[in-house]
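REQUEST FORM: STRUCTURE PREDICTION
Request ID: SP-0412
Submitted by: Lab K.M.
Chain count: 1
Length (residues): 368
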Amino acid sequence: MKKKIFVITGEASGDLLAYDVLKNLDLSKVEIKGIVGNELKKLDINGPFENKEITFFGITDVLKNFFFIKKKIDDTVGYIENYSPDIVFSVDSPDFVFQVIKKLKLKKNNKSKFFHYVAPSIWAWRESRGYKIKKLLDKIYLLFEFEKKYFDKYLIKNFFVGHPFFENFNFENSVYNSESRIISLCPGSRKSELDIFLPIFINIIKTLGNKYCYHFAVTENNVDYIKNKLIDLKSFNILIKSNKIEKFEYFKKSLISIAKSGTISLDLCKAQIPFFTIYKFSWLNYFLIKPFVKVKFANIINIIANREVVPEFIQWNCTSKKIIDKIYDFIENKNKLKKMINEYNVILKKFANQNTSKKIANDLMENL
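STATUS: Completed
RESULT:
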């Protein structure tokens, strides 16, 4: 009889990470079901529903959909209980995942082991979560080596695997063009994020004018929505790309990028271009979360470096004027653009080229 894995991904980034791991498994020897997205569906993996049904942004969004999310948690628990997998392999989305695991742990017939990929940022906020995580997980895979001391503190079994975005990455291959006329804009994937960041990007485009080409890097399901939002900018040179390969090609050719804080930051590092990080909550979300935040920065590069290598524009500093002023400053002092790339590469080398996805795949198979 085949061994069984149930995979849980809460959004597109987790779906991609899980795909990179599970494609390394011999699917003739293991059966996989799960909550998946477009990437994992390529491996013919399916389950109770798709992850897009449980993708929400911010506390207020979660509260408004509380009963819907609770039902999805219960549906997932019931499905896993019937499926009886040897391993539940969860990727990111801890608020949903840990509620599922907590309920499964209460079931007397549960025999599954629980392995989680992408550690919750207990080093950034709510460190006391470590006590709860210890009760839920059999092992956690860490992207960054500095995280290890935090999980060791709570006696949580962990494995530093590095970051999958930088497997087999050659830092010497890239050639940055400081004369480029392309600016990449990355507003996020959730509708609530688009509504916050698109007006800022529109003001930037109107101010910088026609001397630049503006590349919007978006998800496929948001293309039409963004086109409608940009309908009054027909006189500007705007490209909207949702294909992963095409987006990355434009990143590599860009002068600079402005991107919502998140995993996109590492995509931009991989493209070896300068970029700014932006982030803005609703005021309610901001005041609810702010007291629990322990770190000074939003971007992981800055967190590891403990200084601002990548310029950040967070909350009330996230305005089109402040971002435009910084763009002009960098364009007028182009040595700053190349310096940023050199400085973040020093940080990247700490977690690059670790053969991450295969390490996790091998570890999963060894524990089946």
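NOTES: The chain has 16 helices and twelve strands.
Reviewed by: T.R.
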